Amino acid sequence: MGSIESSGAEVVTVDVHTAKGLTHAGHVYLDVRTVEEFEKGHPDVDKVINIPYMFNTPQGRVKNADFLNRVSSACNKEDHLLVGCQSGMRSVSATGDLLGDGYKNVRNVGGGYLEWVKNQLPVEASVANA
After folding, report:
1. Which of 36, 62, 65, 123 is the most buried (most CB within 10 A)?
2. Burial 12-46 (b: 16+ CB within 10 A, else e)
3. CA distances to 28, 63, 124 from 5, in Å
4. CATH number for the 13-124 domain, one of 3.60.15.10, 3.30.450.20, 3.40.250.10, 3.40.630.30?
5. Residues with catalytic annotation?
6. Which whole number is the average pLDDT over 110-129?
């Protein structure tokens, strides 16, 4: 078992190839992009969950006030989570929030979905791309 840090929550970032390997080892890929972004394409892995960290509104992006509640209803605090977004910005914030909320095994996916695609890793789309 790894050591548990009791002090500040430090976000650990892994690259997309490491993330893909970890999904084969049972890690859950938590995609924090909007539903629309997720449906256009997401990593094709065994366990993927889409819980938006932010919503698009006419005023711009707004943080999802229910994010931590939604994650806690889908995952346990001991689950191994890989947090990914479009380019790696939202996922850093989401990972920090999860660590601050007591999740112990959370990692940020560096570069997000754009990096995943750039590295030609498998993707799945829920809707046809127009």
Report:
1. 123
2. ebbebeebbebbeeebbbbbbbbeebbebbbbebe
3. 22, 27, 36
4. 3.40.250.10
5. 85
6. 89
Range of weakest confidence among 60-64, 97-101, 116-120, 123-127: 123-127
The stretches of 66-118 forming alpha helices (DSSP H) are: 67-74, 89-100, 112-118
Taking the C-alpha atoms of residue 14 and residue 66, their distance in angstroms, rounded to an integer, is 26
30, 75 in Cβ contact below 8 A? Answer: yes
- Map tokens 């112990």 to a residue: 104
**pLDDT tens-digit series, residues 36-65:** 999 999 999 999 999 999 998 999 999 999
Q: 80: helix, coil or strand?
A: strand
Distances from the Cα of 83 to the Cα of 57, 60, 95, 127, angstroms: 23, 22, 6, 22
pLDDT of residue 8: 59
